[in-house]
Design goal:
928 residues, eight-stranded mixed beta sheet, flat, alpha+beta, 28 helices, six-stranded antiparallel beta sheet
Length: 928
């Protein structure tokens, strides 16, 4: 305050506030609190909009003044009702102030104008009283008419019983009625349900109330707030001086304050919303408080919050990871309805429905990103719930978006959710309300984004704590006095101490004196000598021995860091790993090295080890003997000299040399190959890099003489190939593999296959006339052609029975086009017989039957294996063939339905089938 007094010359009748660019109070005058709606909030550091809600919504103007785009701004005749019931009137003047040091402030001056306003009101009242007096004295209709027609306010004249006698044009314009419609009617016809105009006239003259606000209903149904004053006027002039009361009429003068009331309600809603957002801990609590506040402040009956599934998860405050079923749908995640309003069907439908982008009022607000108004939802085609709304008595509605941050992809602010409100009355469009709601939507959106950030930060901190607690390494933090500030779960479980015991001990209580010297030195310097500072060099890794609660020694290694504050050590942190088992393993490994060396020398394989440059590091006795290399060559320990000696022994020395050169270029590669000698011997050669940690330090070569094994394997392989070929000629490959795995009984159910039976017509009669050997050779040629067709179409031949041929599609490997493959096979079999007849001068014809359905397939028995089929499908396929016609392919109705879209058929009709009765069959003609 003193600072501004030095810079400003402020008249004593003015008070002021100094604000920064964030509208926070920086300085104030001594008595400025008395102008605040909340005097206790007029405190340095507070947002000025809290004690002065009139400034809510003027932020852009204030910023323009602060940045010198506007010179000033003023608010006039602001009213405060004091505790004693009196009224305080004041004006606000807002300017920008900058001193020579470029010190910028917004200055708000407050001027008490209560006396001036009282004088103006007294003058107005006196004028009105004079007018009434003149009207009474004049007692002429002409003068009253002049008064009525000259008034901008609503004027109604009623009898003592409330019947309307006269009204002016302003009343007709405001309420929408003509004079003839109202004259003779009771004045209560203008009052809304639950309100009363006649009550304004019930007070005695000395207690007449002025400026009584009454909710009225216009002819259109619109609700209006009118501030009425009522005055009784005698109709009998003589009654003025008489002792008995005169007959009186009542003059009602009303001013439409609907806009003022709406503005006040909007400000209240925005102010209370701001307070709720600033005080709410969670989004859920904020929304639960905001919905009823807006409804109550603005006079709406029910409210809803719609959000996509990501927002619904945020509102539910769950940490569980759930799959988002559809992020492009809105759901009602919160709602509120006045207790006096019953809309169960509407609420139930809302709870179950979803809105897509641009669908219904919520979806349209979501898509447009702007507020929307519906005067009467029952007449709106875009409202999805209009029928239920009409049934439950809901009419007016509006919705506004909850806006987040700007998105680069759309160049617009993201819509986080949508709030919708419904009223039981038809509501006229209110653009200013939508603007206020848009501002509230932005405030809520920023609140949600801030809470999202807080939740993300909290979850990140929890994840970090979980990471420490669940780490397998031992994590500890030691204070400047040597006591433990923090140890994680792995530390406690490994050493066995309780939290109470840890709180009482220091690091020196558990560290063993046999720990590494540099580890002990840094701890003694830090906690005993107090000589560690930010310039002290300390080891980044340490190796210490801790003593457990059960007096066991645990060897630990890890990293160490020091934390300083104001140059002093405040904590030493360490992340340690238990290497006790590793040390024991290393000791055991050292013991096994000597054993490994002995094994190396005595192994039957020849082993050679070289370094990265190719120089021989070591070899065993077997290597020298199997290669026959002279001792003087091996003494050189030169890989190149050794290779040159052995190349002449190999059948393919070039491949041997290329393999070595390839591995030199790829030191990380492993290798296996087979070496064939000119004398008939075979060696297996294995090679892999020798590693020390992650570093390759050389290569190890291993040679194994497999000459005898190779000869035995070659003989065995030849016999196996013969057996395999024979087995695959009898059984499908998949079945043969299973039999080789010692499965004794193979039976599988196949729900969808197609079976084909074919029979050469007249072949049985021909067999009586031909030599059996010639007959078999002829049949073999025909069936060999069929076998090739089976292989071509991927079908399985089952068997031949005399001159009959059986095949199946869809097993042992299921296939969706089994019926098509069999159909094509049947057509190709007809063509194959035709070719055979032409080339052999024969006149054979073929009869084919096909049926589709389930079968059981498998191999049974222990001798003379055969893969066969069982089931009614096989029987029907056989009947299709036996009841068929020469040169025709007869199919069942089942197969026909599988093929009718790709093949041409001729309906044969219903035939009598042995064992099945009547069946409808078709003749396959060809492909469409």
């Amino acid at each position: 305050m003193k600072t501004l007094f030095k810079k400003l010359l402020v008249p004593h009748h003015l008070e002021y506030l100094a604000l920064d660019k964030d509208f926070l109070i920086q300085e104030k005058s001594l008595k400025v609190e008395r102008f605040g709606d909340f005097p206790d909030e007029v405190v340095a550091g507070n947002d000025v909009r809290i004690p002065f809600p009139e400034l809510v919504g003027t932020e852009e103007i204030l910023i323009d003044i602060f940045e010198r785009r506007l010179p000033n701004f003023e608010l006039k005749a602001i009213t405060r009702v004091l505790e004693n019931g009196s009224r305080l009137y004041f004006d606000m003047y807002i300017v920008q102030f900058t001193n020579d040091e470029n010190y910028q402030r917004l200055i708000i001056f407050f001027q008490d104008v209560s006396d001036r306003m009282a004088l103006e009101q007294t003058l107005v009242q006196a004028t009105n009283e004079m007018d009434i007096l003149l009207s009474t004295l004049a007692a002429t209709n002409n003068y009253v008419e002049k008064i009525i027609t000259s008034m901008a306010e609503v004027l109604l004249v009623t009898t003592a019983s409330g019947k309307i006698k006269k009204l002016n044009q302003a009343a007709q314009d405001l309420f929408g009625y003509s004079e003839s419609e109202l004259v003779g009617q009771q004045i209560e016809v203008l009052a809304a349900v639950g309100a009363s105009l006649q009550a304004v006239s019930q007070y005695p003259p000395q207690q007449s109330r002025t400026n009584t606000e009454v909710i009225c209903t216009a002819k259109s149904g619109e609700k209006l707030t009118v501030s009425f004053s009522c005055t009784a006027i005698p109709t009998d002039i003589k009654g003025i001086s008489g002792s008995s009361p005169a007959v009186q009429d009542f003059v009602y003068i009303g001013r439409d304050v609907t806009d003022r009331q709406r503005a006040r309600k909007r400000k209240t809603a925005q102010y209370v919303t701001t307070r709720i957002l600033s005080a709410s801990e969670t989004i859920k609590k904020a929304i639960a408080a905001i919905l009823p506040v807006i409804c109550d402040s603005l006079g709406w009956d029910t409210a809803e919050l719609w959000m996509p599934e990501a927002g619904e998860k945020l509102l539910s405050e769950t940490k569980r990871i759930t799959a988002v079923s559809d992020p492009n749908l809105l759901r009602c995640v919160a709602s509120w309805t006045k207790r006096s309003v019953s809309i169960p069907k509407f609420a139930e439908f809302t709870e179950q429905m979803t809105c897509a982008f641009g669908e219904g009022l919520p979806g349209f607000v979501w898509a447009s990103g702007s507020s929307q108004w519906i005067a009467d939802v029952t007449k709106s085609d875009s409202c999805m719930r209009r029928e239920i709304a009409a049934e439950e008595g809901l009419y007016g509605a509006f919705g506004f978006p909850i806006l987040g941050d700007y998105e680069a992809e759309t160049s617009a602010r993201a819509v986080l959710g949508v709030m919708t409100f419904f009223s039981r009355e038809v509501q006229c469009f209110d653009e200013e309300l939508l603007q206020t709601m848009a501002t509230i939507g932005s405030q809520i959106g920023q609140f949600i984004k801030r809470k999202q950030a807080e939740i993300a930060l909290r979850e990140s901190e929890e994840q970090l704590r979980d990471l420490f607690e669940n780490a397998t390494d031992l994590i500890q933090s030691i204070g400047a006095d040597g006591h433990f500030l923090y140890v994680n779960r792995a530390w406690r479980q490994t050493l066995g101490y309780t939290e109470a015991e840890i709180a009482q001990m220091t690091v020196f209580d558990i560290i063993h004196p046999n720990s590494s010297q540099e580890s002990l030195d840094i701890l003694y310097q830090a906690f005993t000598q107090k000589t560690v500072n930010e310039n002290t060099l300390y080891p980044e890794s340490i190796e210490v021995i801790f003593i457990t609660k059960y007096h066991e020694q645990i060897l630990l290694e890890g990293s160490l860091s020091c934390k300083f504050a104001d140059g002093s050590l405040v904590a030493i942190r360490a992340i340690l790993r238990d290497i006790t088992a590793r040390k024991m393993t290393e000791d055991a490994l050292a013991k096994s090295v000597s054993l490994l060396q002995a094994t190396f020398d005595s192994t039957a394989d020849g082993i050679l080890a070289t370094d990265r440059s190719g120089k021989i590091v070591t070899f065993n006795r077997e290597f020298v003997e199997m290669w026959g290399i002279p001792n003087e060559v091996m003494a050189l320990r030169d890989n190149a000299a050794t290779i040159a000696f052995v190349l002449n022994q190999l059948k393919d020395p070039q491949a041997f040399q290329e393999r070595i050169e390839s591995l030199d270029e790829q030191p990380e590669a492993e290798s296996y190959d087979l070496l064939e000698f000119q004398d008939g011997r075979f060696f297996e050669r294995y090679s892999e890099p020798q590693r020390l940690g992650d570093k390759i330090i050389g290569r190890v070569w291993s040679y194994h003489d497999i000459t005898e094994r190779k000869q035995a394997e070659d003989a065995l392989r030849e016999e196996q190939e013969k057996s395999e070929k024979l087995l695959l000629n009898i059984l499908p490959k998949a079945i043969a593999e299973r039999l080789k795995q010692n499965e004794t009984t193979i039976a599988e159910y196949f729900p969808e296959v197609t079976v084909l039976f074919a029979d050469i017509v007249g072949f049985t009669a021909l067999s009586a006339l031909m030599n059996p050997i010639e007959l078999v050779e002829l049949l073999n040629k025909i069936f060999s052609g069929f076998d090739l067709l089976c292989e071509q179409h991927g079908l399985e031949k089952i068997k031949t029975i005399g001159d009959a041929y059986m095949a199946v599609g869809g097993l042992p490997e299921p296939r969706a086009d089994h019926a098509e493959a069999i159909a094509q096979m049947a057509l190709d079999m007809q063509a194959e017989i035709a070719r055979f007849n032409a080339s052999h001068n024969k006149y054979f014809s073929i009869r084919i039957g096909i049926h589709s359905g389930p079968v059981v397939a498998g191999v049974i028995g222990i001798k003379k294996f055969i893969y066969d089929l069982w089931g009614d499908t096989v029987n029907i396929a056989s009947r299709m063939e036996s009841h068929g016609l020469p040169w025709r392919i007869q199919v069942s109705e089942t197969t026909y339905k599988l093929l009718e879209h790709k093949y041409v058929f001729q309906e044969r009709g219903t035939i009598e089938v042995k064992g099945k009765g009547e069946m409808k069959t078709y003749l396959l003609i060809g492909r469409k």
